[in-house]
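User: Could you check the structure of this?
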Amino acid sequence: MENDGTMHAAGKIHRLKSCLNPDLTEAGCDEAGRGCLAGPVFAAAVILPRRFNHPLLNDSKKLSPAQRAVMRKIIEEYAIDFGIGMMEAEVIDQINILQASILAMHNALDNLHTLPQMILVDGNRFRPYRNIPHRCIVGGDRLYRSIAAASILAKTYRDDYMTIIDSRYPCYGWKVNKGYPTPSHRQAIRTYGITPFHRRSFRQLNDQLSLDFKES
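Assistant: Sure, the predicted structure tokens are below.
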């Protein structure tokens, strides 16, 4: 790794854009866990050095758990700044998952020590944060490095959280399914009911669904 944050490695580098506006300090934001039946929604905000790159840097959903773990360490080491935010299931039930996801991203931005001049958000909905300009970008985690980095941190921090609470309610398999509506998770709800970590505003059981979400 060079001092400027450029990563060189064998193999093809995934060509993500370094920034939207090269004259501004940009923070990329993304969330993880919107589609889950249980657990918080997590978000991350990341400010990367302009020339930072790595061949594994990509949308977290495109990476294996091992690859995400590698990239989390690298992002945390080389990022100019990063912040993590979360909103519990109780908040999600009170204000809905979209608003909770936005608040989690605001929380992540609150935890930055460096105030960005521009915010890049994965998706199509956001609320202004401290009068800082923002741009919503659908599929942004596959287009911009800072958003991809945020997606990796949000995903790995949430996965760690779900692994911890799995020890309190091991019958739901959260260490594996991370709270997503897998068949085994739904079957556990049928058998044991819901926990304080389940989102009561979500349809916990839907026997009409022919496809269940699978998350690695």
